[in-house]
Amino acid sequence: MKSTIGNALSVTLFGESHSAAIGAVIEGLAPGIKLDLPFIAGQMDKRRPKGNISTKRHEDDEIRFVSGFFDGYTTGTPLCLLIENRSQRSGDYEALKALARPSHADYTAYEKYFGFQDYRGGGHFSGRLTAPIVAAGAICLQILKGYGIAVGTHIKSLHGIEDAPFAEGGDELERQIAQLNAAYLAVLEEEAGARMTAEMEKAAAAGDSVGGILETAVTGMPAGIGEPFFHSVESRVSALLYSVPAVKGVAFGDGFGFAALYGSEANDPFYMEGGQVKTRTNRNGGINGGITNGMPIRFQTAVKPTPSIYKQQQTVDVVKREDAVLQIKGRHDPAVIHRARVVVDSVTAIALVDLFCERYGYLWTAGRGGPGKK
């Protein structure tokens, strides 16, 4: 039973929602990476709850590096980061600790850990654990940026409200990614963002929640990254995406849309431009045979409505083994999709840096191997 993922670059996650601290250990970073601390702080801010569309639990999320970082640079040894929990209200969970919240991990955690799990705020299963993931991901995003690779995610749809689509590629897609990465609410169309905000506020007022679909694009990727079958780009990125709480579906390129196409429609024709191999369409999301083909990576992620809702629900008492009625208390999000987008960016970056390190070695993270830095 491990909370570690990655091969050449690995991330180990630890802590619980109401423990003294949460954090991560990152192994496989080269020595001499000058960490961009303001950028990391900015990424953490995108995950932070704000306004009426998020939980009222507010944490400083101040990152403390306790090993592997000295005088502004990584040392090459395991990098350990801590984030203190300072705004716990554990009493909100005491009276309901035996009642399994529907669609949460309460019941499954009880069965797996024989009742010894930390139940407060979801314990180790809480979305609170995405904070150190974002911190680790910010380091990986910084590394990718040094090679001219950009990752961006927008809320494609929220409870049926659609955002403007991504451009196919080129300068316009890069401009859109820059726009998203500078915003808290990651949408391409301001009017769509206003409607989404109103929908989240409406759900909050009703004691309910909403979900949606995130769409991610990665530009600047060279061809040849990834492995066939078990270590394909899709496999590795998906493994991390499914670790994000509330993610229930992932589709690359046209995804399930391929089911309605002929092969002549689904294929992406190749052509030459300026000595570079490109495709005229990108239905396969920049990946062929599990390996990047140099076009933008594209995928969508389905995020379910937050399971913590204030409506009365049917459940069971896991100790007494009898039916029960649940009415939750505490501080909960009417939607997590707007905060999850930076988590999706982060896990994508972690997966890609790991794949790059497998191909070029860990010194690649400090610009000492593989293709040159931009």
Percent helix among the residues? 25-40%
Radius of gyration: 21 Å
Task: Name the beta content range.
Answer: 15-25%
- Number of E-state strands: 18
Instruction: Pick out the low-confidence regions.
Output: none
Q: Mean pLDDT across all residues, rounded?
A: 92
> Tell me, what's the shape?
globular
- The assembly state of the depicted protein chains is single chain
Label the structural class: alpha+beta
Major sheet summary line: 5 strands, antiparallel
Order of helices and strands: EEEHEEEEHHHEEHHEHEHEEEEEEEH
Q: Span from first to last CA?
A: 40 Å
Annotation field: number of helices? 9
Which terms summarize this structure?
single chain; alpha+beta; five-stranded antiparallel beta sheet
If you had to describe this structure to a student in words, what would you say it looks like?
The mean pLDDT is 92. The protein is globular, with a radius of gyration of 21 Å. It is 28% helix and 22% strand. The chain has 374 residues and is an alpha+beta fold. The protein has helices at residues 37-47, 91-94, 106-113, 130-145, 170-181, 190-205, 233-241, 263-266, 337-360, and strands spanning 4-5, 10-15, 21-27, 63-67, 69-70, 73-74, 79-84, 150-158, 161-162, 212-219, 247-252, 270-273, 276-279, 287-288, 291-292, 297-303, 313-317, 322-326.
